[in-house]
Amino acid sequence: MVTKVYKRYYSCYNLLMKNLYLIRHAKSDWSDESKSDFDRALNKRGEKAILIMANALKEKKVMPDLILSSSAKRAKLTAKGLAKEIGYSGKIKYIDALYMAEPETIHRLIKDVDDMYDTLFVVGHNPETTELSNMMINDYIDNVPTLGIVALKLPIDHWKKFKMGKGKMQFFIYPKMFNPKYAIGLRK
């Protein structure tokens, strides 16, 4: 009896929560100086990082209902790569306004998300990803590195109610945490 009541309460509680994942794009390729910032693709390290982070998300059983991504090439490739590797076949919306956006702009875009989506990935850039993360939590993140993911649980049932400072950080992960080669400071 207690278990049934608890389960009913727990499932109702979860209905009143939204999950937001703020994701910085993977490492970009700077080898072709003729390309604009907007048109830079990913380098090999960035491509490998997608596999690492997709595995981390799968281990945590994270699956978005919707992905919003900057329309810059490196963000698009990150969003598509993560989607493919975690088995997400839903919608990816590419939004020009997420490129070089102020945190307040990202905040407004999130508030406009349809409430049918409970778990949202937002793939963007720095410093915006770090700034917005810090505006959401009662903690401080110095820097969200490339392909860093800040997972937030929001005590809301409608995205329109999304407010700064109301997120509870579930986790903050990034590729170097999962790669022993980088953990000891060795790089190619």
Notes on the protein architecture:
The protein is of the alpha/beta class and 188 residues long. It has a single domain (17-183), classed as Rossmann fold, CATH 3.40.50.1240. The chain is 35% helix and 18% strand. The chain has a 6-stranded mixed sheet with strand order 3-2-4-1-5-6, with helices on both faces. Residues 1-14 and 182-188 have low confidence and may be disordered.
Major sheet details: 6 strands, mixed
Q: What structural category arises from helix and sheet content?
A: alpha/beta
Based on CA atoms alone, the radius of gyration comes out at 17 Å
The total beta strand count reads 6
Quickly count the domains. 1
CATH topology category name: Rossmann fold
Trace the largest sheet across and list its strands: 3-2-4-1-5-6
Low-confidence parts:
1-14, 182-188
What would CATH call the class?
Alpha Beta
* Shape estimate: globular
Instruction: Using the 3D structure, state the CATH architecture.
Output: 3-Layer(aba) Sandwich
**Helical element count?**
6
Proportion of residues in β-strands: 15-25%
Assigned CATH superfamily: Phosphoglycerate mutase-like
Order of helices and strands: HEHEHEHEHEEH
The helix content, as a percent range, equals 25-40%
Roughly how many Å apart are the termini? Answer: 58 Å
Q: What is the mean predicted local confidence, pLDDT? A: 89
